Amino acid sequence: MLNFDDKKFEEKTLTRDEIFQGKIFHVVRDTVSLPGGTESFRELVFHNGGTAIAPVHNNKMILVGQYRKALEKFIFEIPAGKLEIGEEKDPKAAALRELEEETGYRAENLTEITAFYGTPGFSSEKTYVYFSSDLTKVEHPRPADDGEFLEQIEVTLSEAKRMIELEQIADAKTIMAIWYWEMQHFKKEVEDNA
């Protein structure tokens, strides 16, 4: 699979119509030439990317809940945020910033869990996800973003898994972080029993 010739599937952009330029993303409609010689349209969202961190303190994961207008519901997530211009080169630093702003904690050691494209069919947004269980409470943390209203909770692994079942946790980055945390638990059990 590594030697696969993906160039034969490339879609060449013939024209681009600018639809919307916002503070968070940019929307275009491209006319593309398909590999078979026909034309089609692609509606695309360009996004600078995001970063997130799964913080575990005293064997509990710290989550932040907020109302998500696109879903029209309140959900819990790991601390996260968009990458500001220039932060694409250091998403780890942005994750640390978000952790402090949203929870009041600082992390010393971060492990990158993954980086993923959530909806590559139409969006360029890439999210970097980190894990840390080496946390320190900050006496005077950075303030949260304007217009951000958060509820902070701490949950055990079994509670987090139950919240996924109830769709109180419903976003990909948080679910991946919980799976990673569960794998770390399993790995530790195997090592302890070896």
Automatic annotation (TrEMBL):
GO CC field: cytosol
UniProt xrefs under Pfam families: NUDIX
Enzyme nomenclature, EC number: 3.6.-.-
Cofactor requirement: Mg(2+)
Gene Ontology terms for molecular function: hydrolase activity
Coiled coil: none
Keyword set, alphabetical order: Hydrolase
Protein name: ADP-ribose pyrophosphatase
Organism this protein belongs to: Lactococcus lactis subsp. cremoris
UniProt gene name: ytfB
